[in-house]
Amino acid sequence: MKIAVPVETAEALDSVRAEHFGHAPLFAVAEFEDATIVGGGVYDSVSHDEFGCAGIAEYVASALGADVVVVREISRDARAWLAGHEVEVVRVPDEIG
Fold first, then answer.
1. How confident is the model at residue 70 (pLDDT cuts 50, 70, 90)?
2. According to the model, what pLDDT value does residue 14 have?
3. Which contacts of 81-86 are long-range, i.e. CB under 8 A and separated by 24 or more positions?
4. pLDDT reported for residue 80
5. Interval 72-97: pLDDT, tens
6. What b/e readout covers 13-32, taking b as 16+ CB neighbours within 10 angstroms?
């Protein structure tokens, strides 16, 4: 399973989480096997101006291989695209970092 989180900084597990999925400059991805991180990294996002939120959702699911996306905020377009492609979206409240 791969989990993607939109982030502002490229500091692996110490990256600062981005406020909004569609405007994040980077995505931190962790790949898990049996509850153990076995891979991942921090990857550049694609341009919101060029691809829109649904295009970013497609990139995260297709190019980065995410099965789950953990976000604070996400647009309806991106959420719908992810749901239609069996990628789970988990919204986390602000209080949790």
1. very high
2. 83
3. 81/53, 81/54, 81/57, 82/57, 85/57, 85/58, 85/61
4. 95
5. 999 999 999 999 999 999 998 766 55
6. eebebbeebbebebbbbbbe
Longest dimension (CA), the chain: 38
CB 24 within 8 A of CB 18: yes
